[in-house]
Structures are given as C-alpha cells and as structure tokens.
Amino acid sequence: MIKTDVLILGGGLAGLSTAYHLNKNSGLSALIVEKEKYPGGAASSIFRKGFTFDFTGHLLHLHDPYGKKLIQDLLKGNLREIKRSSWIYSHEVLTRYPFQANTYGLPDSVIDECLLGFLKTVHRPTKTARKTTQVSFKDWALRTFGDGICKHFLFPYNEKLWQRKLSTMTTEWQGRFVPAPKVSEVLYGALMDQTKAFGYNASFVYPRQGGIQSLPNALSQRLKKNQLLLSSEAIWINLKTKEALVKNLGIVSFKRLVNTVPLTDFISLCKETPARVLSAAENLSSNSVYCLNLGVSGNLMPGKHWIYFPEKKYPFYRVGFYNQFASSNAPAGSSSLYVEFSRDSKTKVRLSHMESLALKALRDCKILRSDNRVIIKEWLPIKCGYVVYDFKRTKALNTLFPFLAKNEVESIGRYGAWKYSFMEEAIMDGKKCAEKLALC
Length: 440
Ligand SMILES: Cc1cc2nc3c(=O)[nH]c(=O)nc-3n(C[C@H](O)[C@H](O)[C@H](O)COP(=O)(O)OP(=O)(O)OC[C@H]3O[C@@H](n4cnc5c(N)ncnc54)[C@H](O)[C@@H]3O)c2cc1C
What we know:
Blueprint: E1 2-9, H1 13-25, E2 30-33, E3 45-48, E4 51-54, H2 65-74, E5 79-83, E6 86-90, E7 93-96, H3 108-123, H4 137-162, H5 183-191, E8 203-207, H6 214-221, E9 228-229, E10 234-238, E11 243-246, E12 250-259, H7 263-269, H8 275-282, E13 286-297, E14 306-308, E15 318-321, E16 334-344, H9 351-364, E17 374-387, H10 393-406, E18 409-411, H11 413-416, H12 423-439
Parallel strand pairs: 1-2, 1-12, 2-9, 6-14, 12-18
Antiparallel strand pairs: 3-4, 5-8, 6-7, 10-11, 11-12, 13-16, 13-17, 14-15, 15-16
Helix pairs in contact: 1-6, 1-12, 2-12, 3-4, 3-5, 7-8, 8-10
The chain binds flavin-adenine dinucleotide (FAD).
C-alpha cells in the first residue's frame, strides 16, 4: 500500500500548485493523482498537424503580486503581453466589447432602444431589495442596464452561455465579469467608436510557444520525481479510513486529502456519504462547454482575439482565434480557432450535428470564406465548464463544506470550491491550501 501525508486529487493548476507549495513550505510528503495522461486539466493544450489548441481561449490575467511573480518566473521569456481586441457580432455588424458601452455601428433603432432603456434606469431610483430577498441576475441586469441592452445582448448572450433562465441565477458571480460603464461612457459609445478598454481582462498575457500547456508543464517540472502520477484516476475514497483506490496504483493511504476534482464528482466518489450531503451535491449545477477546434487555411479575422455571438441564429456563444494570441499556434498562412457551445451538463449532445451547424454559421457570418480550407477539426468537451450560480448553490455549499471540513478534506480550485475563477486563482488556492496544511 502506498502511503502519503497529503493525497491530492487532480493534476490541474490547483493540484500542481498545492504540491509545489507543500514541497517549498512543509516537510509533508504529497502525491498528486491525475486521471489524464498529461497535467493541466482545463489549462491544457493539444497539438495536431502544427496547430496548437487549448480548451478554448485560456488567457492569463495576473492580478495577485505573488501569483504574477510566480507565473512570470515559471514562463520566463515565454510570455507576451497583449491588449484585448474582443468584439460582438449582431445585426450583421461587429461592435466592440462590452456591448453596453459600445452600441455605435448598430442600426439606429437598436441604439435608440439601448440608450432609452439605459437612461430610464439612471433616472429611476433603484428599489432597495428587502434584506431577505436576493436579486436575480435578470432583475439586476434590467435595473442596471435597461431593457434595450438586455434584449439585444445581456439576456440572449447569457442565456446561451448559462443554458438556464436568468431569473434563477444570482448576481454573486458577475461583479468583475459584467463591466458597468458610467453614463457618459454609454452615451459616448453610442455616438462614436469608443476605443477605451473596459473590464478585468483589458490586457492579458499568453505563452509565445507551447500554448497554455506550457504553464502546467513548467509547474510540473518543479515537483519532486514521481510526485505527479498520470493516468491515475481516483475510483473511490473512504474518508473514515483515509484510503483511496486509484487506478494503476491500488490503495493509497493518506493523512490529509486535497480535492480539485469537480465537487459533485468528488462527493460521488466518497463511500458511505450521508444522504443530506448527497442531496446537497445534487443541488449543484453546471454547464458543459463543447469546444470545436479548427485548423483552417488563410488568416481569419486579423487583429481580432474573440467574438461574442448573442443571436439565436448562431449556435455558438463565442469564437476565438488562438493564432492571434501566439503566431506559433498555427502554421504560417493558417489560423487556429475555437468555437464554443454550451449545454446544461445533463443534456446529451450530438457533436456531428453541432459541427455542421457551426460550419454553416461560420460561413454565414463570413468568418469562413469559400477559399478557406478546413485542415483539421477536433472537439474538446469540458464536462464541467462553468459552475452555475443559481439560488440553490450557496445553500448546498453550506452543507457540503462543513462536511468536508469535518472529514479533513480541503476542496479547492475552480471546481473543487465550485466557483467561477481563473488560472491565477487556482494557483493561489493551491498556495493557500499548502500553507494551511503546513500549520496543521
Ligand atoms: C471554457 C473555459 C474558459 C476559460 N478561460 C480562462 C481564461 O481565459 N483565463 C483563465 O485564467 N482561466 C480560464 N478558465 C479557467 C481555468 O481553466 C481554471 O480556473 C483552472 O484551469 C482550474 O484549475 P483547477 O486545477 O482548479 O481545475 P482543473 O483544471 O479542472 O483540474 C482538475 C483535475 O482533476 C482531474 N480529475 C478529475 N477527476 C479525477 C479523478 N477521479 N481522479 C484523478 N484526477 C481527476 C482532471 O483531469 C483535472 O486535470 C477557463 C475555463 C473554462 C472552462
């Protein structure tokens, strides 16, 4: 039987960072078990016929001084800083992101609806919600931006992305993800092409070579020999005996457990889980992202990083261009792009059908032209893509986290902690977790 002080489930950024920081700051032994053949989880890349594809766009937003320094050190000489160029395609025109600050270029009637609706929100005092009532994302968006902006972008786009009624979602997630421009900026952006950048990702960094995979690879290289075990899926966990059955390894005995696997999956791996915990986990929901990666001849949409598609006639919610982040992501004279679809995680999908819809729609909006040849197509499904912040989530987590704490499980990262977060935060989660374990 293998024995370790700390068993880490998952070799994504959160798991890798936990082991790295445990090695640095504690005398504890740590072992990562990762079910795939490669490290990185959602921050991985695949390499096909000279094209590099990530699991849709993975751009680094560095906000924490420690996280920034560590990532810059890990990817020394291999990072490029890029000013975002993101767009929205609707009413057959491209307008700048974010929609609410950039309606210039849309048909006059659409601009009128957006501005009038927005100005009404400015002149109407916001109703204070009763303390016991949580405002839904739908009501918040209407109150903040008005009915025109909601009708033409915020509602259709978010319904496509989240795959559920926006009245069932809370506002807990949107703070940094939905920019709220000033009145003057909304007006200015309706009258002329406003180049001012808004939002948390106005600029980002990305590896010059090797796709986003170069980040988990660099972190893996800082681990001890045989500390990261690939093709090693956790099959079950017994929290009482502190043992796990791991594919290709057998039983692993541990003192402390760190989970980075999606929380819902983790709970189903645990033996003899109380019914109230199982039913709390059933109340958590997520969407699945299906990423169609394409390698195409020709230089598509030069200078554009990604485009949002709010309208129903386009089956995807976003299309982006990896080769605009790093030219090494596609052979010279060609483009590598990602086409993102979202479905509720319980929905069955037919990828062949989605693929034909995608190719037709890409031609309809003229991203693909008749002289562009599709060289390679590859689907990358992300089963747990975005955690849904609905009204059941907080209540469920208030049952699940005390259960995990009682059983000495740290559940971290984007999916372990069941949150909407980024790569730098996954690395920071691992650091904080290691520091906590070192003190135990
Ligand atoms: C569509 C999309 C776009 C994104 N874009 C960005 C972006 O632009 N910028 C950004 O900073 N972040 C982005 N993110 C978020 C980023 O991918 C995550 O925050 C980060 O990669 C999460 O790392 P993690 O270690 O917490 O989870 P994961 O990467 O999911 O790691 C968990 C690991 O557990 C493994 N695993 C699962 N089950 C088992 C098992 N039973 N046994 C062993 N191993 C198991 C998985 O294979 C995986 O490797 C995006 C995410 C998505 C889905």
